[in-house]
Amino acid sequence: MASEAIPAPKPYRGWPTAALAGVYWIFQIVNAQMDMPMFARFLSGALSALLFLVLFLVLWLSNGTLPGRVRLLGLGLILSGAALGILLSHKSFQAMGFLMTSVPPVLTAGALWIYLARLWKPRTAVAVLSAGILGGFLYFDLIRWDGLDGRLRSSTSWRWTPTEEAAYLASRNAAAPTSTKAWSLKSGDWPEFRGARRDGVVHGLRIETNWKDVPPTLLWKHRAGPGWSSAVLIDGFLVTQEQRGESEAVVCYEAESGREVWAHEDQARFTEGIAGAGPRATPTFREGRLYTLGGSGIVNCLEASTGNVVWRRDLHQGSAATPPQWGYAASPLVVDGKVIVFAGGPSASGIVALDAATGTPVWTKLAGKESYASAQLLTVRGKPQLLMSDNKSLAALAVADGATLWERPNPSEAVIPMLQSSPVDDTRVLVAAGQGLALLELKEEGGKWNAAELWSTAKFRPSFSNFVLHDGHVYGFDEGVLACVDLRTGERVWRKGRYGNGQLILLADQGLLILISEKGELALVEAKPQEPGEIVRIPSIEGKTWNHPAVAQDRIIVRNGTEMACYRLRPLKSP
Questions:
Q1: What does pTM read for this prediction?
Q2: pLDDT tens-digit profile of 482-499?
Q3: What is the per-residue DSSP string for 365-415?
Q4: Omega of the bond prior to 346 within 30 degrees of 0, cis?
């Protein structure tokens, strides 16, 4: 009697997990192209990865075509592989970051295994499954995470390759400190964050715009230490802050040559995963002295010509405050002999006014826990006010004693301020409001101040890229796209040109915007409410560029966490 043929084993059912993997990656591609606030982008990425993991495990464990022991083995491999991967991962990875990076590719490989397993013998299939899952997680242990860009796209390197910071430290030669003559502020100098008025506007400069044929002249370019500080330019010198190993450095260079003149270093280092290491704030120059704030909270007053310390103060001294999540980023404001800095909370010393001559506290003020926006001086009908913004509120304070003149609570403490407010005239100020903008009108009635909202909009979301005002319009980056808003109504006029989370300044005499893109490109665009045309875009520096440019006379300084360069802008010839 002929024996009956033994039926071939049925292939494993793989289409549900394959479909799930396909949906996940299609969502990631579409999500990457959409414009949305950074927190919403992070949340959508994290939740989609978590949902992928949960649904994959449900489908895996309920897949009756897989032997029960294989399903349990797969579950154990995923859990143990993830734990082992986190344990062996490079120190640049936090556990959540490692899982968000490694789990989706490993699960996708698992979905592919279900289809391919039919080609192998059972033992071979199990061996491939084990090697694939464990090897997948261990592969990501070979990676160093180098942070995120403005759209939360990761940058990675092999963990054994030198970092940009290590390459910088290896390339630089120790410069002998050089004393210079006393500095004096010249017309057209750039003495503090975003210029003399902290508004990103340049007056008295007109330039040739034919950058396509005759671009700005590169005077010098060299490596720079990590940091998101901008530069100040005074009397032919530029000063910025950068990280040098375990030291935060305030560094002075000759603006014309890029030669280092002096450097002051403090033994301090602040770093976090998204932006990396280095100081965030920009120095402030006033009457021959420089006032600086490091990423870890050290305030220095330095003699500008030599870098010698006049006084030094740690914001943690006598306070329980810890550095904000992304470090101290608010540039010191010097007004009426006081240095205004944000120290953070929760404590009564969240905002501190230090004596500019001695560093002694003059007054302190309770503030929110976090802020990355620098103090702004307003003059309302001839009366000065300090505009301070933190995660709790936007408040105007009296310069003399820090008394609250008016306050505008935030709708949520989860909204972290990062932008400068811009005075419009002596009664109105444009402020960041949540993810958008608001125009406020300030009035004093019966000795009490009131800030009335004229309009607000969520259609212009500048994130951490500051904006400028020109001829009744606002120009800035709306989630990385250049946009124009009507200052009268808050309505967006146009939105055109992707630059990422870069920065911009305005040449007011010509109505020109000079932009630095997140990729380090320089661009020239007309600031007009009609549909704009980009005049030209040229390469400048390489790498993620979040730092503000600085302009003094005919020079523009651009920098990021790896490079710094100086270009000469060609002055417009008289007709």
A1: 0.90
A2: 999 999 999 999 999 889
A3: E---S---PPPEEEEETTEEEEEEE-SSEEEEE-TTT--EEEEEE-S-TTP
A4: yes
